[in-house]
Structure formats: C-alpha cells, structure tokens
Amino acid sequence: MSRVALVTGGTDGIGAAICAALARDGFYVAATYAHDDAKAEHFRETHNVPVFKWAVGDFTACAAGVAKVTEGLGPIDVLVNNAGITRDIMLHKMTEAHWQEVLATNLTGAFNMCRHVIEGMRARNYGRIVNISSINGQRGQLGQTNYAATKAGLIGFTKSLALECARKGITVNAVAPGYTDTPMVAAVPRSALEQIVGQIPVGRLGTPAEIAHAVAFLVGEDAGYITGATITVNGGLYMV
Questions:
Q1: Which of 90, 162, 188, 205 can bridge 228 by disulfide, Cβ–Cβ 3.0-4.6 Å?
Q2: Residue 238 DSSP one-character state
Q3: Is the pLDDT reported for residue 233 higher than 90?
Q4: Residue 212 has what DSSP assignment?
C-alpha cells in the first residue's frame, strides 16, 4: 500500500529534493508552496507531483489545504515541515515584522500543519513527521536571532510531540541541514560563502539530495524505532 506524503515548501531547493526522493520510494507525494506560481507549475510538470498553494502560517488555510490533499490523494501518513524563510538582520535593527514573519512560517507553520494531521494519524495508529531544522538552530548565527529561534524551537517541538505520539505508532524527528546548495544559501554574499565553505570539514556545501536521503530514511517503514531524534547533515561543521 502506497502512503501519502505531504511536503511543505516542496517545490524548490531541499523541499523539491525531498518530494523527488519520496516519489521514487513509492509514496503518493503532494507539495505546498506559498508564492511562485510559475516555479510551482514547472515543478509539477517536471516531477509529476501535485502542488497546492497556501501559507503555512495561516491556521485556517492549513485546515483547508490538508482537506484538499486528503480528498485528492487520501489520508496523510507522512508530513515533512520544510517551509521556511529568512529575514536576516541584527537584532538591534530588527523590526517586529522581521520577527513575526519568520516565526509564522518556520515555527507556527509546523504547529498548524501538525495540528491538522495529528488526529488522523492517531486514529490510524500510524504516522511519520519530519521537521526541517537547521545547523543555525543548534549553534546560532549572527543576524539570525529570528531564524535560529524558530529552528531551535522546532527541535523542542519535535521532542515533545514525539513523546506524545510514541504509543500511537507515530514517529516525530528533525533533520538539521548545514549549508546546502539552495537558492537561500546562494543569496549569501560570495565572500561570506567562501569563508563558510572553508570552515566545513568535508570542504563543500551539501546537496539537497543529501538532505532528502535523511528524510526518506526517517519516514520509511524501517525507522519505526527512531523518534525524538535530530539528525544533523552538515559535513561536520557542527557536531553534537
């Protein structure tokens, strides 16, 4: 029986790689996106994965979106909370909007999505949830008090939800990528990026596919004894 997997922020970067990996593994995959219609359509045509547009920071929109996915594909067995944004700026210059926008998407979005799938997973005694954190949620980063707070928050959220759901056949884990070759990282000034790469023990950026491999493992049938864990995929830049 093929299971249904929903990946938020799934039409680009790490999210697109996760969708492709899960589709290869036989899941029925759906991807969400929030803004770029042209990119989403290109992704849909290239990967043959249905796409759904809503903002994960909107509780009501998440409820409606989950209902549409369920109606089209079936009950959601796997949820990957990948949607995330940055608004990088030092705290003494940060506005309330910089803070609230990042929290709404990165952290509240994970709550919204989990809240709308968790009852069904509990009723079926099965589920896989993976939250995409970040190396900077583990070690911090200049100009990212907002982003790092959300990614650290996801790790605590993951552990707590894992405890709540373990007896119901639901695993909840986090993946914390390091610096990965995505459009988000490409926006970092070249000189700063070269300095970062110079600090990575393996000597290069990660690839979205490498992050996707970790997610695919955690949502597989063989990973049922792993829950509440944070898997770091960062080339050795930060070791826990």
A1: 162
A2: S
A3: yes
A4: H
Q: Which helix (H) or strand (E) holds 175?
A: strand 170-177
Which secondary structure element, helix H or strand E, spans residue 172, and what is its range?
strand 170-177
Q: Where are the alpha helices (DSSP H) in the chain?
A: 13-24, 37-47, 59-73, 96-103, 109-124, 135-139, 145-165, 183-186, 190-199, 208-219
If we measure between CA atoms, which residue out of 221, 216, 238, 228 comes closest to residue 14?
A: 216
Please write the tens of the pLDDT for every residue from 31-54. Answer: 999 999 999 999 999 999 999 999
- Per the DSSP assignment, residues forming a β-bridge with 177 are 233
CB 127 within 8 A of CB 170: yes
Catalytic (active site) residue 147:
yes
What is the average pLDDT across 117-143? 98
| Higher local confidence (pLDDT), 51 or 193 | 51
Instruction: Answer whether 77's CB lies under 8 Å from 4's CB.
Output: yes
Q: Given the residues 33, 147, 179, 225, select the one marked as catalytic.
A: 147
d(C-alpha 204, C-alpha 22), whole Å: 25
What is the residue-wise DSSP string for 33-94? Answer: ESS-HHHHHHHHHHH---EEE--TT-HHHHHHHHHHHHHHH-SEEEEEE---------GGG-
Distance separating alpha carbons of residues 174 and 212, to the nearest angstrom: 12
Q: Given this model, what pLDDT does residue 191 score?
A: 87
Per-residue pLDDT at 1: 62
CA atoms of 239 and 85, how far apart (whole Å): 24
